Amino acid sequence: MKVRRSNRLVDMTRYLMEHPRTLVSLKFFGERYGSAKSSISEDLSIIRRTLHTWGVGRLETLPGASGGARLTLLYSEENAAQVIDDLVKAVDDDSRLLPGGYVYLSDLLGRPDVLREVGRLIATQYVDDDVDVVMTVETKGIPIAQSVAMYLNKPFVIVRNSSHITEGSTVSVNYVSGSSQRIKKMELSRRTLKEGANVIVVDDFMKGGGTLNGMKSLIEEFGAHLVGMTVFAEGQFSGQRLVDGCTSLIKVQAVDDTTNKKITAQPGSYMEAVFGNKKEK
To answer: Residue ranges of the Phosphoribosyltransferase domain (predicted)?
Structure first.
C-alpha cells in the first residue's frame, strides 16, 4: 500500500524514536510504506535536519547493502543547559532539606517528564562511548537507570543490599559508607554482568561517594570496565570523597542548624564534563 509522505514522516520518526541506536535498513522502510529507497532517503534527510535544528537527536545514515538509519536521542548544549536550569529551580526549595544534609528528591524522580529529561541528559554524556550495561543500586536509582538504559538501548542491572533467592548465585563486596563510615555490603547476580563489559554507574544522590565506590569495586570483581559515573544530585561533603570523576547534574548545599535551614541548588559538573570536553576537541 502506497503511503503519503506526511504519513511516512510521522511513522518513521515514531519508529526510530521507539528503537533508539538501532540500525534500521532502508529496505525495511521501503517495504513498510511501499516506497522507493530514494524517497525513503529524502524522508530521512528531512527528519535529520529537523532533529538537528531542534537539538534533540542525531540521525545517522550508513550506505551499502547492510546500511540503514540509526537515531540517537540526545540534547544539544542549549537544551541541556535549559533542562538543568529547570532542575535547579525545582530542587532549590528549603522544604526539601532532610536530617543529615540529605535532600528529598522522590517526588521529582517519580515524575515521568523529569525522568525522561534526566535519562536523556545522562545518555547524552555517553552516546559516543562503548557502553554495554547501565548499573545502579536499589532503590531510588532504579528509575534513573531505566530511563538512561532506554535512551542508550542497553540493559540495566540493579545492585542490591541483600540477595534475593530469585537472583541465583551472587558476587558481594563490603564497602565503607562515605558519610556514616559504616561497613556495608552490596551484591549482584553473577548472571547480570559479563567479564569485560563496559559499565556506566548512575545514582540519585552522592555525598561521600561510598555507594559509588562500592559499585566500582563490584565492577572490578566481575572483571568489567567502568566507563563513567553520573548522579542526579551532588551534596556537600566536608571530608575526602571516596570516588573521583563523578559527574553531577546539580549540586546542592544545605545548612541545617537550630537557627537556619536552607538549601542552595546550582548546576553541577555536567555541562563542563560533557560540552566542555567537546569544545576542546
So the answer is: 111-256
